[in-house]
Amino acid sequence: MASRTAGRSASSTQPKFDEMTRRERVMAAVRGEPVDRLPICFWHHFQPEGSGRRLAEATLRFFDETFDLDIVKLMPDIPYPFPQRSIQAPDDWHLLEPVDRERSRFFGQRVEAVQVLRDELGYDTPIVVTVFGPLTEALYFVADRERFFAHAQEAPTKVHEALSVIAENLRAHIRDVISAGADGVFFALQGCSTAFMPEVQYREFGRPYDLLALQGALDGWLNVLHVHGEQDLMFDLVLDYPVQVLSWSDRLAGPSLREARGMTSKCLMGGWHEFGPLSNGPRDAILEEARDAVAKTGGRKLILANGCSIPDDTDDRWLHAAREIVEDLDLP
Question: pLDDT (tens digit, 9 = 90+) per residue, 67-115?
Fold first, then answer.
C-alpha cells in the first residue's frame, strides 16, 4: 500500500507549524482552528457494479493513492433496495417496508466498504458515507415528479408513511456505517429548492424525515449536509440541521461563500465550480477560484471542494493541479 502522504507537491513551502494528519487538519477546519493548509476534497462516481469491496477499492485508489485527499468520500453508487421509477399509484407507497439490514445488499455492502476502507487507511483519514435524504430517495422511486406531487395531494398519508419507513431505514443504516468506522455522512438533499417545490411542501415532506434519518449520525463528528440544486436553494431552511459542515454549489446556485459565512457558523465546503476550471482547466483558473474562496471566508472553517460531483470523465491533470495548488495556497 502506498504511503498515506504520497503525492505531496515537491515544491511545497514549509508550513508555519508541524504538518497535520488528515484527521487533525479536517477536525481543525471544522472547529475553526488554524490549519497547516486548507483541507481539500473532490469526487465523482465510480459505478462499482454493486460490490462493496469494489467500491472500497475504487474509492481508495482515487481519494488516497492517486490524489491524497483529506476526506475519503464513499459515493452512493450502491442504490437503496427499491426499484427506481416503480411507484405508479398511491397504493404503491405501501410497498416500502423496513429493510432487514443483515440481508440487504445495499446496507451490507456499504458497511463492508467502510470496514475495508478503515482497515486500509487506519484512523488518521476521515471517511464520510454519501446518503441521500428520504425525500430524495422517494423521488427516485416514483415514476416521475408530477406523480409525486399528485400523490402528495391526493394521498398524503400514504406518502408520509412511506417517507417515515425510508427515514427509519436510513437512520439505522447511518448508525451502522458510523459504527463500522465512518466519521460521518455526506447527507445529500434534492428537492430542497423553490425551483422544485414550494417551501411549505418541503417543510411537510422533506425536513421532518431528514431530521429523523440524521438521528443516526449523532455519533459522527464530520457530518456534511449537501443541498443539491442549481438555483433557488432553501438554504435558510436547513441551517439548523445537526451537522458540522455545509456543502452546496456555491458558484452555481448560491449563496456565495461570503454570504453563507454571514448566515452560519458551521464549516463550509466548496469554492470550486464543479463544471468550471476544476473539470476543464486551466491551472491558473483553478488557483484563482481557490484564492477567491479563501478571500471570501478568511480561510477559516473552510474545506476546499467542488460544489457537487464533477463529470466522471474529468481529465486527471486538472485534479492533480488542484491538489498541488492547495500546498502553496496562502492563508491569512
Answer: 999 999 999 888 898 999 999 999 999 999 998 877 777 789 999 999 9
Q: Which residue pairs from 251-256 have beta carbons closer than 8 angstroms and sit at least 24 positions apart in sequence?
A: 251/276, 251/289, 251/307, 252/307, 252/308, 253/193, 253/229, 253/307, 256/296
The predicted-structure confidence for 288-321, as pLDDT tens digits, reads as follows 999 999 999 999 999 999 999 999 999 999 999 9
Q: Are 110 and 165 in contact (CB under 8 A)?
A: no
Residues of the chain with pLDDT under 50: 1-15
Note the pLDDT of residue 50. 65
Q: Cell numbers at residue 36, please?
A: 497547516
Domain 28-327 sits in CATH at 3.20.20.210
pTM of the model: 0.93
Q: Say if strands 302-306 and 40-41 run parallel, antiparallel, or are unpaired.
A: parallel
Alpha-carbon gap, residue 22 to 219, rounded angstroms: 19
Contact 188, 132 (CB under 8 A): yes
Who's near 235: CB < 8 A, 6+ residues apart? 227, 248, 255, 260, 263
What H or E segment, with its residue span, contains residue 80? Answer: none
Each domain of the chain, given as residue ranges in start order, spans 28-327
Of residues 53, 52, 75, 64, the one with CA closest to residue 312: 75
Nearest to 55 by CA among 2, 120, 117, 142: 117
Residue 52, H or E segment: helix 52-59
User: How many other CB atoms sit within 10 Å of the CB of residue 206?
Assistant: 26
DSSP codes, 145-209: HHHHHHHHHH-HHHHHHHHHHHHHHHHHHHHHHHHTT--EEEEEESS-BTTTS-HHHHHHHTHHH
Whether a cis peptide bond, with omega within 30° of 0, leads into 79 is: no
Could you list the beta-strand ranges (E) of 245-307. Answer: 245-248, 267-272, 302-306
